[in-house]
Amino acid sequence: MDQKRALTELVGSLAVVYFAINGGAMATGLVLAIFMMAMGGTILPMFTLARMASGKDGWEEGALDFLMQLLGGIIAFGIAWWETAGDMNTVLPGELGLFTGFASLFAGFLLMMVYERRGAGWEVGILAWMVAENGATISGAEDVGEMLVNSAWSPENITAVFGGMVLAGLGGYLALQFGDMALGEEE
Questions:
Q1: Angle, alpha carbons 110-112-116 (nearest 5°)
Q2: Domain extent at residue 153
Q3: Measured in whole angstroms, how far is the alpha carbon of residue 79 from the centre of its chain?
Q4: CATH number, domain with residue 152
Q5: Element (H, E) at 30
Q6: How many domains is the chain built from?
Q7: If both were cysteines, with which of 16, 72, 134, 143 could 161 make a disulfide (CB 3.0 to 4.6 Å apart)?
Q8: Is the pLDDT assigned to residue 187 strictly greater than 60?
Q9: pTM for the whole thing?
Q10: What is the pLDDT of residues 92-119, one digit of tens each?
């Protein structure tokens, strides 16, 4: 087990989710950009799922990354809940419909394309800001934290959160396959 990698995922996810709760899309993207430059890692569950599915990360490493990212989201949401004495105005993604499903898939594709082609740098955070500003959920860890802290484990929420996360991961996987087959190596 790579403890440094696990802590990178935990701290990165905690920071991104914490600032997403309090600062919105711009703060989320900028914090993600800073953490991508400073620490590396995948930080977002969608990247982890895509890299595991494509074989770029092993299942053991990826599963640990994924769990640490979710734990980071839960801790961040717990801290925000404690700071506000439980009076938070946050909203889960809602029903997983055609629009939200496509938005997750497309956001995962775009973000992974930039993540992989630009070396997991600051550009990912800037693009994350743009897709989040337009309604795409980029951090499934945030939504898992919200469901746990607010006891909002309804079938609709579970389907929306985990379904959106899987669709974003699928979009990332498709980006990796597209990049390997159609684009080849960056020159």
A1: 125
A2: 3-183
A3: 19
A4: 1.20.1080.10
A5: helix 3-38
A6: 1
A7: 143
A8: no
A9: 0.84
A10: 566 677 777 888 899 899 999 998 888 7
